[in-house]
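== Sequence, structure tokens ==
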Amino acid sequence: MTRRFSQIARMLMVVALVVTATAIVVASAKGTANYKSKKGPITVTFKHAYLVKQPQIGGGPTMRRVVLAVEDVSAALKACKTSMCTDGGIGDGMTVDFDAGPRLNYWFVANDQLIQYSGTLDPSSAKLTTDTPTRLAGTLKFDASGSGGATVDVTFDATLVLEVTK
């Protein structure tokens, strides 16, 4: 009986380790946004990715927002109750809105939001490897430097952390 219990305990530990390792991989981002400011180049290195569901401004179907951040903003997102805070208060990073229309809307910020740039992207800028209601993963690559924006190349894996209805 002791040996059987020991085998079961080892199997449970292996399962726990696999689940933990999977959780570490999910909700991550790796890549950069490069922005040419008047004072010199700025690089934002993304580390975290989160998926948020929220209503569109002015009504319409629910949209999915990927929040790409340098700092961990999961606590701010989990505390959010309305669509007014679904960016997690990022100071350096960007948001990308999926399902909000024929193009992807995005907002880029750097230097604790002293630099802000927003625009739209052709949906082909995002190459998704996972596209489910609770998870978006893939790459986002575009160059908006010609219009004063950033050049972005990031791989992300974002799981749903927040769903707001107002």
